[in-house]
Amino acid sequence: MKTTRRKLALGSALALSTAGLAGFAGVAGPAGAQAVDSISASDKAQGAKANPELTAEFGGRLTGPQATYVESVGKTIALQSGLSNARSDFTVTLLNSPVNNAFAIPGGYIYVTRQLTALMNNEAELAGVLGHEVGHVAARHSNKRQKAAQRNSILGALGSVLSGAILGDSGFGRIGQQIFSQGSQLLTLRFSRTQELEADKLGITYLRRAGYDPRAMSTVLESLARQNALESQLRGSTSQTPEWASTHPDPASRVRDALVQAGANATGTTNRDKFLAGIDGLTYDDDPRQGIVDGRKFTHPELRLAFDAPEGFYLVNGAKSVSITGQSGKAEFSSASFNGNLDTYVANVFAGLTGSGQPGVRPESLESTTVNGLPARYGVATAQTNSGTMDVAVFAYDFGNGKAYHFVTITQAGGAGAFNTMFRSMRRITAAQAGSVKPRRLSVVTVKAGDTVRSLSSRMAYSDAPLDRFLVLNGLQQDARLTPGQKVKLVTY
Predict the structure, then answer these.
(1) Residues 6+ apart with CB under 8 A from 436
(2) Record keywords: Zinc included (predicted)?
């Protein structure tokens, strides 16, 4: 969550007109493709218009040596598509986002998050992911999704959860699976299994043309599947299916298909050491400037605040908000314009929960309280949905100096109390506490004699599942043996 206090309009769209998004995590939609062999003037105009807001939605553009390296690889693989022979026609952006995602829009705009980049283990994998995205554009898959994009719009993660539930667009039981699993990454359009497999094949073709090992597409898909399964395990979810594969053949099938397409005995460059040197030092997980999620605790050192999610809930930090989800409800922490009157503030938040032309959601009354010295105001409203009657609560805090923040929660009727401990946990933090918040960073280390996966994993900056995290991050199995001189990735403070 950025320090910029922009109101999250629940149900508002990130309008991309006909540009669309081609997402590495995308799923579902009509099949078919129409090849394109150039970047049109209209594509360039639409891409240029969408790029600033889209970049902001995913945490902003990173600069520096890591971004320059990713840009170079991206332009090299994009040239293999035949969309253009000029590197300058492509804009490759490394996004400051802690979610695993990559996507592209027509006009030569290609994006990958730092989190997904950190998950990769060589340059060929990076090229494969970016080539997959260029493949979506070259095959004009986004044009096939244009009507769906205009019909459904591209919503902020919790925005679509709350507006969907309130307006009856989705069942309560499906909300978490559809939106919260990977947070903002689901801003990408969803493609059919045929389109995703076609993009995989195009990406593999581009890898071959550029001289990379085409098997890299298979290995990066496997890493992403393992990472999603690990995150599901850490949250206590029973579903092990990655979000990007939820309507596809099982993840293993997609990995196998990519390997078959590449050829089990294929060869080519991977540039592993160059890649690891190129991404060494990347911020991993949350950027403190956007707030830090640590288990059930959220801390924002610049806003000088912290709160704790209830037991059994997990947090996903986004560009404009923090989502909180569990079996008994969903919530969002965000901010809005504040004129000093909490009644007006809460009323405006409620008013923003439904789209244009929809009946409003209003609380029967507003109550005042004080939470850890902060003046607070809250109300609960009921909403009829296709999943039954829901309780929608808004709980707002006055931080002084024209700043206010709030939670919006949704639960089954009578269940709003599930978030009481979270409401009561909101607090200011001291300058010393803010100063103690440190980012996690990707650190490339050289294996020494006597190092093992267990000894190195103990250096990971996590108290939960450090071994599993280390293995997935490095594409290693439980029985892996390390060799002195080998380079591996760690996440450290």
Answers:
(1) none
(2) yes
